[in-house]
Design brief:
two-stranded antiparallel sheet, globular
């Protein structure tokens, strides 16, 4: 049966604005740049043709006054390898998605059909709205050389070669295209189901931007992409626990909607993410087995999350029906319902209307089938109320598809097989290809950059880098991000460490020290535990302020 019209619709933007497909963070960041420039709106670019590598190379070669000494072969190679984000790189159908997002205006040169963010740019922007300081910091970083009023570009003396080239491209080709906000897609700022992920993202972005005068721009942009993917993953992992519970209870806890007031309250949150990571990254070891178990527990939550998303979406359809009939008032100041408002329709006083609405849809599904499949007959025989029967039918028809799509999307947010990965999976399939949570070196570097930058003790709000003991950093990873390395999580598939687990944890801790040593943040000074100290790579003083505080 084809689920026509609104029957098969699945996504609810109040849960996530992402259309669950594999994400590429270069393309997500490129689209986010447009939203930063247009105050949250996507861009609408008018130009004559699709841009390929030859167009960019020709632009370089036609302007020797700017690009002196450029020859075609070298320029082509440099453009492909250093300046462009390519689709199907190295293959016969290789094509330009967009220039690398090193500067704010690179979004003007993207080929939209090849550079799709699948809603992740909107999700990030709405999360960043939790702190205007984070949005302002990103705008100032990516558009630092642009006059906001006139759009004129004036590169600074410290601008790197790649960014200089992209800036000149913007100046030379700026008159050939028209960039404006796409007002046909207005913002819908849904209140967050959980305020915690957005607050953590904004704090980390502010701290990472503190390093912009101390590291190359290309490195910082790569760090930002890793950080964005990391927090998108943490948000959706949290939703995998929170949303099914909200459907069961019919509400979202107030502490989740407003944010936890203290670290102790955050630790007690039943929806906190807790992941055990394989620090060594080698399959077949005892820590890898524990990480595989942790990953398996989380991925087994996906079918219930898909069903809960369906339930919220269909309750939203029910709310719209009641609003059109005049039996339910729309929220003041907006024409859409939040997931929490939709969940309130599970109340007993709405049962008669709810049963009538979903019975009509159940009947429609049955009537469109000439011969009901055995699975559908089993669902009918369960004697469920019409709402539950309808969502079970939807899961029968479309649940496997959306589960598969969400798995691919979650894999991409966890950067599987990419620098900064929080997830690994041996290639080839079979019993030895289980997913497992890991801690890639780039992700570790990003977390170190934001963690070693802390508020000064004088209460001024100024930030400065300072050494940190290894055990303190491990404790911070657990409490702030739910990442476990030297101990097992309390719950989420674990119930205390056995004797064999203790040996695995010691091996994992040793592998973590080796990883710190490899990336240059740790040197052995003594065997004493209290002298195991992580040293910041960049020394940053207290000249700037964040306006936020690290819990």
């Amino acid at each position: 049966m084809a689920l026509t019209g609104s029957l098969g619709t699945f996504h609810h933007p109040g849960v996530s604005r992402i259309d669950y497909k594999p994400l590429d963070m270069d393309r997500v960041l490129t689209a986010l740049l447009a939203r930063l420039w247009h105050q949250g709106m996507p861009s609408k670019i008018s130009r004559t043709a699709t841009l390929d590598v030859d167009v960019f190379v020709k632009l370089f070669l036609e302007h020797p006054e700017v690009f002196d000494g450029f020859n075609r072969e070298t320029t082509t190679r440099w453009t492909v390898t250093h300046l462009m984000d390519m689709v199907n790189r190295g293959r016969a159908d290789e094509a330009v998605a967009a220039p690398r997002p090193l500067h704010g205006f690179t979004y003007r040169f993207r080929n939209s059909r090849k550079s799709r963010p699948y809603g992740a740019d909107e999700q990030l922007y709405e999360m960043l709205c939790a702190d205007e300081g984070a949005l302002k910091g990103l705008r100032e970083f990516f558009f630092s050389d642009v006059d906001r009023a006139t759009g004129a570009i004036s590169p600074g003396p410290d601008t790197d070669v790649e960014t200089q080239a992209l800036l000149h491209l913007v100046e030379l080709a700026g008159g050939r295209m028209r960039d404006q906000a796409d007002t046909s897609k207005p913002r819908t700022p849904y209140p967050p189901l959980c305020a915690e992920p957005a607050q953590l993202l904004c704090q980390d972005v502010m701290r990472l931007l503190y390093h912009q005068d101390h590291m190359p721009r290309t490195v910082l942009v790569d760090y930002l992409k890793t950080l964005f993917a990391f927090h998108l993953a943490l948000y959706h992992l949290r939703m995998m626990k929170l949303l099914p519970a909200a459907v069961t209870t019919g509400t979202v806890p107030e502490a989740c909607r407003k944010g936890h007031r203290s670290q102790a309250a955050a630790d007690r949150c039943p929806y906190q993410v807790r992941l055990f990571l394989d620090a060594d990254g080698t399959p077949g070891t005892a820590p890898a087995a524990l990480a595989e178990h942790s990953t398996d527990i989380w991925y087994r939550r996906i079918p219930r999350f898909v069903q809960a998303t369906y339930q919220v979406k269909k309750l939203d359809d029910f709310a719209e029906s009641l609003a059109k009939a005049g039996t339910l008032s729309r929220p003041a100041g907006r024409n859409y319902f939040t997931p929490e408002e939709a969940l309130r329709l599970l109340d007993k006083k709405r049962r008669k209307d709810r049963d009538a609405f979903f019975l009509q849809r159940v009947t429609r599904v049955r009537d469109e089938e000439e011969d009901l499949p055995p699975e559908l007959k089993q669902i009918i025989q369960l004697g469920l109320d019409p709402f539950d029967e309808y969502t079970e039918m939807l899961m029968h028809y479309r649940g496997r598809y959306y589960r598969s799509q969400f798995v691919k999307c979650l894999d991409s947010m966890l950067l599987k097989h990419r620098p900064g990965a929080l997830l690994a999976q041996p290639r080839g399939g079979g019993a030895d290809s289980a997913r497992r949570f890991i801690l890639d070196g780039r992700l570790l570097e990003v977390l170190l950059q934001v963690s070693l930058l802390r508020e000064s003790a004088d209460g001024s709000g100024d930030l400065a880098t300072a050494p940190m003991r290894v055990d303190a950093f491990l404790s911070l990873l657990r409490s702030r991000y739910g990442l476990y390395i030297d101990r097992l999580p309390d719950g989420d598939g674990f119930a205390g460490a056995h004797l064999d687990d203790q040996a695995a944890l010691r091996a994992n801790s040793a592998a973590f020290l080796n990883r710190l040593r490899e990336i240059g943040y740790y040197q052995d000074m003594s065997d004493a535990y209290l002298t195991q100290t992580i040293t910041p790579r960049y020394a940053i003083g207290t000249a700037a302020r964040t306006g936020t505080s690290t819990r």
